[in-house]
Write a structure and sequence with these properties.
By secondary structure, the protein is α/β, with parallel strands linked by helices. Helix content is 51%, strand content 14%. The strands form four sheets. It has a seven-stranded mixed beta sheet with strand order 11-10-9-12-13-15-14, sandwiched between helices. Strands 1-2-3-4 form a four-stranded antiparallel beta sheet, sandwiched between helices. A hairpin with a 2-residue loop joins strand 1 and strand 2. The protein starts with a helix and ends with a strand.
Length: 613
């Protein structure tokens, strides 16, 4: 025991000395319990990909993704991981870097097998992979590698020297010039990652990265902590970028020129040393108690870490639950029905309804069992009563009754909201509308927002729950407003509900920073052609948009300018094929910066524009 304690003390001393911090016996003793807690702390590795998250522990890999249609899928695979190597100073940084890259490729490859992409949606990567009979992940990897090398040769290799010697005409001290070139290369890398932050695909990756960090910072808890930070020093992207910056600077500054045959070996050795030093520096940041020291890495980490949305957090919850499954769930007990039998029975009942989606199975099971949809994948057996209740709900669904009507509530943007025949059940696509409005809210200080045709209050409540705004919700139907008010109370949010025909009940000088609406947009003549689950269970008042389906868009656009503050924004959800017509209406009314957003099925679903008062 004494030997082990001495070893831990020496290790703590080593980490301090590596970073050139003076120490003494008291300081070493103070860090000793911290190191004891954090030693062997890396029991899981979370890695983000563009459409999901991968999680590794010592025995398995869990990959959870969300595809283009908003469906969440999860897969698992046995792996053998030796985390003890990540507790050995000096070499662990090198191991973490190369193992992390290999695991990223593995997670991405597994994600592609889970995502059943339709032929029409497959890009050139898939087509090349099919032609050469290889996995598309390798095509993507080699294409990225070639592009990275070409970009590196120009932007990092040629451009800094060109700027220094040609543009600025610098011919000073050799060491000063190499130092300036090294700084220029670091600056170019930083700006490159800054550009990545504004690319939609990369933003998804960075949000999943933030979700990964929340999982790590939540510790060994099975639940994701709301207070957990989205930043973590030893996050793989954080470590890899730090190491890249550090090694580029050191290789450029040292500028080794012995013999070209061995120069690259020396630079490789410098790179490996930089990997080791970077890991140890970030390790120290992860264990220190002073916040201002611990948060130093955020100066770079903010480039590739973004706040995750509800969807990103649900995906990381799936991986956390799957990882704990082996510990918490035993073999199927006697007198219980296995999930395989239930799913077979559900498939038989639902096969006659062409409108049933794959996700309906999960929603039916989740609602009866009162669990999150992401947890359905973890259920291995159910009781006989649960089996009967699920099949009863399945029979109602097979007749066209929507799930929201069967259970009297719907999950929307992470909130459980009551619905009935007096209100339109919010759809998954409407979450995109909420997401776009929340993005705009972050750019404003204490904005006022108005939700027109609020119905169940889903949009207004979701916005109020996830931001600090003064929220007003308007609807012409008093029964609908009663449902919305009850939902607001249950979610503990403050919304000012007004019964009015659009803007009629507002004061003439009332202004809002943002107006959002999911108005009725079905053509009057098309209502009888709708699916039975819509025309029978949704109120006609919430569907009928007039002869051309545009009545409400015309009224709202015409009158919204009177109630929008300077640079105010107007947001709509759209029906299929209405985007260009609504865009023309907004443009004729004087709106600018008009943008159209597609939904999970690549249908033009959201439109917004700015008014210049």
């Amino acid at each position: 025991m004494q030997i082990a304690n001495k070893k831990r003390t020496l290790n703590a001393f080593f980490f301090i000395k590596t970073n050139k911090i003076k120490t003494n016996f008291t300081l070493t003793k103070r860090l000793k319990p911290i190191y004891k807690v954090n030693n062997h702390s890396m029991k899981k590795i979370f890695l983000p990909v563009g459409s999901g998250i991968g999680c590794f522990d010592q025995t398995k890999m869990i990959v959870a993704i969300v595809n283009n249609y908003g469906n969440k899928k999860v897969g698992r695979e046995k792996v053998k991981t030796n985390f003890k190597l990540l507790d050995i100073p000096i070499i662990r940084g090198v191991i973490y870097f190369f193992v992390g890259i290999a695991y990223l490729c593995k997670v991405y490859s597994k994600g592609l097998t889970l995502d059943n992409i339709e032929e029409k949606d497959k890009n050139i990567t898939y087509k090349i992979a099919k032609k050469f009979n290889i996995a598309s992940v390798y095509v993507m990897f080699f294409a990225s590698l070639i592009f990275g090398l070409l970009y590196g040769l120009f932007a990092i290799g040629v451009l800094p020297s060109f700027l220094l010697k040609t543009t600025w005409g610098f011919n000073g001290n050799y060491y000063l010039s190499t130092f300036i070139i090294a700084l220029l290369r670091v600056a170019i890398l930083y700006l490159t990652f800054l550009c990545f932050r504004f690319m939609p695909f990369m933003q998804e990756l960075f949000r999943f990265n933030g979700a990964c960090n929340k999982a790590v910072n939540s510790g060994e808890n099975k639940k994701l902590s709301a207070e957990a930070s989205i930043y973590h020093p030893l996050n793989f992207l954080n470590f890899a970028f730090f190491a890249l910056l550090f090694s580029v600077f050191m290789v450029s500054f040292l500028s080794v020129q012995v013999l070209w045959e061995i120069d690259w070996l020396i630079n490789l050795a410098i790179f490996i040393l930089c990997l080791s030093l970077t890991y140890e520096m970030l390790y120290v940041l992860s264990i220190v108690k002073q916040n201002w020291i611990k948060d130093l890495h955020i100066a770079f980490a903010w480039l590739y870490t973004m706040t995750p949305t509800v969807t990103h957090l649900e995906i990381v919850k799936v991986t956390m639950l799957e990882q704990s499954y082996d510990k918490d769930v035993k073999e199927v007990e006697k007198d219980r029905v296995p999930m395989s039998a239930l799913l077979a029975e559900m498939q038989t009942k639902l096969s006659s309804n062409e409108r049933v989606e794959e996700s309906d199975y999960d929603w039916l099971i989740a609602n009866v069992l009162n669990i999150n949809r992401s947890e359905v994948k973890l259920v291995r057996s159910i009781t006989a009563k649960e089996y009967r209740d699920i099949l009863r709900a399945t029979a109602r669904r097979s007749k066209g009754e929507p799930i929201s009507s069967i259970f009297g509530y719907v999950d929307f943007y992470g909130l459980r909201l009551d619905v009935n025949k007096k209100v339109l059940s919010p759809r998954m696509e409407t979450e995109i509308l909420v997401e776009e409005v929340l993005k705009e809210i972050t750019k404003r200080k204490n904005p006022e927002v108005c939700d027109l045709c609020t119905g169940s209050g889903a949009i207004a409540i979701a916005i109020a729950k996830n931001s600090n705004v003064k929220m007003t919700a308007i609807d012409i139907s008093r029964p609908a407003l009663q449902t919305a008010e009850n939902n607001a109370k249950k979610q503990d949010v403050k919304v000012d509900f007004i019964c009015s025909d659009l803007f009629a009940g507002l004061k003439k000088n009332k202004k809002f920073d943002i107006i959002v609406s999911n108005p009725p947009y079905i053509k009057s003549g098309d209502i009888e052609k709708l699916d039975i689950e819509v025309k029978k269970f949704d109120p006609k008042l919430a569907l009928d948009g007039g002869n051309d389906g545009l009545d409400f868009y015309k009224k709202i656009i015409e009158n919204s300018k009177k109630h929008l503050a300077k640079n105010g924004m107007l947001y709509f959800e759209l029906g299929i094929g209405q985007a260009e017509e609504v865009k023309a209406l907004m443009k004729d009314a004087g709106f600018s910066d008009i943008e159209i957003i597609k939904d999970y099925n690549k249908i033009e679903r959201i439109i917004y524009g700015r008014v210049r008062n």
